């Protein structure tokens, strides 16, 4: 679990702050493990303004279907549709790298950043959750 990222713990979303002021978002390893192998993903269109908590994509997996909520309000700049078209399991195999989902330009970062947890604190939270719930985190394999 990369400790240089920040995390929205309730929805299992990671956030990477980019040098251009945008943020990249993706599913945590725990989220993709619990969801199972992804089957399809439908992204919102770039240019759309999203409020914190609103869906930037709809994900369907072997065990679950539902929204991918953004923890921050912002303009949707890009999505990783091409990556998922090449390999639908990209988030299962590499959730913190090539399996990113969307990029946003935050519009209320000063008011919303408190919702995010730094990597080291998130690591401790997830470690306790994994131990408590008996979750076995591992990447999906072919």
Topology:
Layout: E1 6-8, E2 13-17, E3 23-27, H1 29-35, E4 38-43, E5 49-50, E6 55-61, E7 65-69, E8 74-79, H2 81-86, H3 90-93, E9 102-106, H4 109-112, E10 117-118, H5 119-133
Antiparallel strand pairs: 1-2, 1-10, 2-3, 3-9, 4-6, 5-8, 6-7, 8-9
Q: Can you put this structure into words, describing what you see?
A:
The chain is an alpha+beta fold and 142 residues long. It has one domain: OB fold (Dihydrolipoamide Acetyltransferase, E2P). It contains five helices and ten strands; from the N terminus they run βββαβββββααβαβα. It has helices at residues 29-35, 81-86, 90-93, 109-112, 119-133, and strands at residues 6-8, 13-17, 23-27, 38-43, 49-50, 55-61, 65-69, 74-79, 102-106, 117-118. It has a seven-stranded antiparallel beta sheet.
Q: Order of strands across the biggest sheet?
A: 5-8-9-3-2-1-10
Annotated CATH architecture: Beta Barrel
Quickly count the domains: 1
Shape: globular
SS content category: alpha+beta
Oligomer: single chain
Which sequence of SSEs, written as H and E, runs from N to C?
EEEHEEEEEHHEHEH
Q: How many alpha or pi helices?
A: 5
Task: Offer a quick outline of the entry.
Helices cover 25% and strands 32% of the residues.
List keywords for this structure.
3-stranded antiparallel sheet; 5 helices; alpha+beta; single chain; 7-stranded antiparallel sheet; 142 residues; 25% helix; OB fold (Dihydrolipoamide Acetyltransferase, E2P)
